[in-house]
Amino acid sequence: MEGKSQVNQSQNDVVIDRCASKLSDLWEKEDYWAIWLGFAMLLVGLFIYLSNPPAALHQKIDKANETLAVESTRAPFKTVAWYKAVDAKKLKATSTPIGKKVKLYTHKPHGWSGNPLNAFMMDKPAAEAKKRKAVAKYEAAKTKETAALKAAKTAETAAAGAGFTSETLNAEAVKAIDVWRDTHMKASKAKKKAKAKPYNQIPYLIGLSIFLAIFFGIGKKAMGNSMTKFMVGFGFVFLIAVLSYTASTNVTMKHFGIGYAAWAILFGLIVSNTIGTPKWVMPAVQTEYYIKTGLVLLGAEILFGKILSIGVPGIFVAWVVTPTVLIATYIFGQKIVKMPSKTLNITISADMSVCGVSAAIATAAACRAKKEELTLAVGLSLVFTSIMMILMPAFIKAVGMPQVLGGAWMGGTIDATGAVAAAGAFLGDKALYVAATVKMIQNVLIGVIAFCVAVYWCAKVDCVPGERVSKMEIWHRFPKFVIGFIAASIVFSLIAQSMGNDVSYALIDHGAIRGMSKIFRGWFFCLAFVSIGLATNFRDLKHQFAGGKPLILYVCGQSLNLILTLLMAYIMFYKVFPEITARI
């Protein structure tokens, strides 16, 4: 009996040890710290912006909605007064004093053209000279807007005089109003640039560096690493991140769509493959730690209300085409291209078909891809993203493709969310709205793809013949930060829904998200890309790129993606659900 008791006690000890190990994961594992840090940032953002709404928020929204209700029944198209009411209720918490203060302390380097020092500081004479040029451009843009507005009102009055029964007059009014909206958007952009002021961003960048070093250092300390060593190395990583942002804010680089991610990896690679990454920097070279935290923040930006705003057509474009392309590309890589590495194959497939870097990180974690494989997949994505964000809107405009179709096409094929927005803005408001929404719907698949890859790898790739798939192995392989990504999306969607579209636009979309989440997500991603470069050797990449098979895989997969996405977008938006397209 005593021996049996000892055995039972030993078994109980094992169970307790396993439970304790699982519980300790909550403060010892990187994925969980990404969740805690991400949610801490989101909660701070909510507290700041929900406590400081724009003045007379509800009154202005109510007044604008009254106008919209009247105008919606007065004419069969969106009138000048309708658009003005929409503009009037687009209030932003980021424009409040506290919102401007947050932006001041977290701002990336400013745009520049000739002197790179202007990215960090500008004295009063230089600011005044810049302002004079910007004001001149704004006045010219404003003059065009005024003329276009007058023409729009004249055309609308003519249509109203006919009781809105003349299709010809109605069409002329719609065309004139569209021209006015285009000039209005250009004048608004010019107005922002006409507010140039002297600045010195260096003290704020130093303060931000210290804050982020402590922010991430707390997690490293809890995970059993030296916080001091991390903070010392972090200064170097942050400096490269600042230089990357600086290069990307150059006017020429903006024009060609070469963003901070490409520069961050490039600068990191130059350091690691020339002088070598210093040993004292390596404790802060934490690619997954930074990007996982950033992905939790990304979850808050995926609001269900926005997903439903364009309904079933957008869901078909994103949720049917994307997994089809991913699976087809993976099979093509294995059967036709003969990719030697299955992990590289699936990582490139997910990167290209879902949403670029974010999907690549989640997929690489699920299948345990090598860091150089992730670097190669990300590199391909960044190169083709820069090319596509320039060529696609130019092609769409050249062939006269409708904005809704062009926006859906770009949203489902261009990898990075920021590049999608930039490409959509080139075409117009409708294209920007549709492209950004389709990309947001597609981003939802990050968690789904990570889970499916984890299951497939456990069941088919890394399985032992004759053994059943272990649920615990799937859970162990599944990237836990995805839970934070999903939770953030659900929480913020519920909060936004409870507020209503107009208030959530001001306090959530243009408050906690754009005023906190997106700002820090950009910095976290930049730190991750710098870390990728600093931890990668060209010799490793050369081995992975042998024979050009990854490039062939990406080009063929993206070609299929472009064809299927355009076809699906046309069928859904113009054949199956034209009434939804008409409302956009």
From TrEMBL:
It comes from Candidatus Desulfaltia bathyphila. It is found in: Cell membrane. It holds the Pfam family Cons_hypoth698. Belongs to the UPF0324 family. It comes from the Bacteria. This is Putative sulfate exporter family transporter. The chain crosses the membrane at residues 32-50, 202-218, 230-248, 260-282, 302-332, 376-396, 408-428, 440-459, 480-499, 519-539, 551-573. It is a multi-pass membrane protein. GO terms for cellular component: plasma membrane. InterPro entries: UPF0324_pro. Keywords: Cell membrane, Membrane, Transmembrane, Transmembrane helix.
